Amino acid sequence: DTAVSQTPKYLVTQMGNDKSIKCEQNLGHDTMYWYKQDSKKFLKIMFSYNNKELIINETVPNRFSPKSPDKAHLNLHINSLELGDSAVYFCASSPLEENNEQFFGPGTRLTVL
Amino acid sequence: AQTVTQSQPEMSVQEAETVTLSCTYDTSESDYYLFWYKQPPSRQMILVIRQEAYKQQNATENRFSVNFQKAAKSFSLKISDSQLGDAAMYFCAYRNHELTGGGADGLTFGKGTHLIIQP
Questions:
Q1: How far is A14 from chain B (nearest CA, A)?
Q2: Where is B68: in which H helix or E strand?
Q3: Residue B66 to residues A15, B28, B72, B113, Cα–Cα distance (Å)
Q4: Angle formed at CA A50 by CA A68 and CA B46, multiple of 5 degrees
Q5: Would you say residue B108 has pLDDT above 70?
Q6: Which residues in chain A have their CB less than 8 angstroms from residue B44's CB?
Q7: How many CA atoms lie within 13 Å of A1's alpha carbon, on the beta-carbon side?
Q8: H or E stretch including A63?
Q9: What phi, psi does B86 have (nearest 5°)?
Q10: Whether residue A65 has pLDDT greater than 70
Q11: Which of A47, A58, B97, B115 lies at a 20 to 30 A Cα distance from B105?
Q12: Section B25-36 average pLDDT
């Protein structure tokens, strides 16, 4: 009964490849997010998405694209991977109510060689 | 844009003692939410405590409490009776009260404080 799950937990790949990270939440939440945590542990929002709107952090390269097949899933596709993309990527979800916390997935450690 | 600053990259405290982690933020909004998240070595992000800016009363959750000073834009976390399991990275985070568009607002995080508990 994991609330927010991500697959895979670890991903090692070569520069230039295209990869996807999957995220699923079984909490019935309306909104999902992707965050990037760099090597210095700094967490930064990449995308926020619900069935009405996708909000993209303007600093995110367009090689990154979220795809939501349904309300419970928000997958992250990354094209032409670069060394600097190595990081831990967290998916999160929250209800639409304003004061509710975000529930985080376990994170995916991406290593680009 | 909002910013969150944690000025202590690392803190150390003896087991059973009290420690305070500092956080300041910058915003032009009057209504917002503040959070402290804990990230142990397992890297799971765990909510410790949250505060609504319109509430004057400081939030408390068992051994964890905050000192929220709205005018000073300060939001410190106090951990009483520190335990070995409290060792982790602690992140202060901010979110607007007024949600944009369909309500999809992310958190703005500080850079974190690494808390070490000395046995």
A1: 24
A2: strand B64-69
A3: 44, 21, 14, 15
A4: 95
A5: yes
A6: 104, 106-107
A7: 1
A8: none
A9: -80, -10
A10: yes
A11: B115
A12: 91
Q: What are phi and psi of A83, to 5 degrees?
A: -55, -40
3-class DSSP state of B25: strand
Pairwise CA distance, residues A75 & A34, whole Å: 9
Query: Residue A6's beta-bridge partner residues?
Result: A23
- % of chain A exceeding 90 in pLDDT: 70
Burial of residue A43, with CB atoms counted within 10 A of its CB: 0-12 exposed, 13-18 middle, 19 or more buried = buried
Q: Which of B47, B89, B97 is closest, CB to CB, to A98?
A: B97
CB-CB: which of B101, B106, B107 is closest to A52? Answer: B101
> Is B81 exposed, middle or buried, given 0-12, 13-18 or 19+ CB atoms closer than 10 A?
exposed
Distance from C-alpha of B47 to C-alpha of B61, rounded to nearest angstrom: 11
pLDDT of residue B106: 84
| Average of per-residue pLDDT across A94-102 | 74
Q: Letter for the amino acid at A67?
A: K
Does the beta-carbon distance from A98 to B108 stay under 8 Å? no
* Confidence label for A52 from pLDDT (cuts 50, 70 and 90): low
Q: What value does the CA radius of gyration of chain B take, rounded to a whole number of Å? A: 14
Residue B78: CB atoms within 10 Å: 16
pLDDT at B102: 43
